[in-house]
Amino acid sequence: xxxxxxxxxxxxxxxxxxxxxxxxxxxxxxxxxxxxxxxxxxxxxxxxxxxxxxxxxxxxxxxxxxxxxxxxxxxxxxxxxxxxxxxxxxxxxxxxxxxxxxxxxxxxxxxxxxxxxxxxxxxxxxxxxxxxxxxxxxxxxxxxxxxxxxxxxxxxxxxxxxxxxxxxxxxxxxxxxxxxxxxxxxxxxxxxxxxxxxxxxxxxxxxxxxxx
Length: 212
Description:
repeat
């Protein structure tokens, strides 16, 4: 998508599309399902700015869609694509948070639709991703995702299976913007941990300027 000349984009699009298709098929042949799913989730990033059709219907996609909502590009269709490409059959599956994975891939559309389908915005106590969806967004410094989840009533005080809050993950990601986004929603950063250190003290040590 970084080609400034239209003719170049037209020429490179078929080549990149073929290479992407071969990579996806190679993953299936090798049985590397994890990489296969990662590639499918990244195709809009890889192909951005190029004149090609993305997200063609996948086999079995229709089985996820409500009978009254099969239009390509609809919210339900976006959710169906996300569930299908990641091997899920339900919005909330045992031992795995689909919304957590959507947060991991920064798929904000999928997050919104999953919440509409009653996914638990604060899930994360027994998930393979360990962190809550908000914790996942904070860990990667996804400020837009953080704001979206907070608007949808994600609780910044909820601790995951490891006893870590979403704000703790912003310290790991070292993202002042993420810290500010979550601190503006009432998260207390004064309580001390088991070693007596406070999050506020850490921020002062790092000289981050945050309105508290």
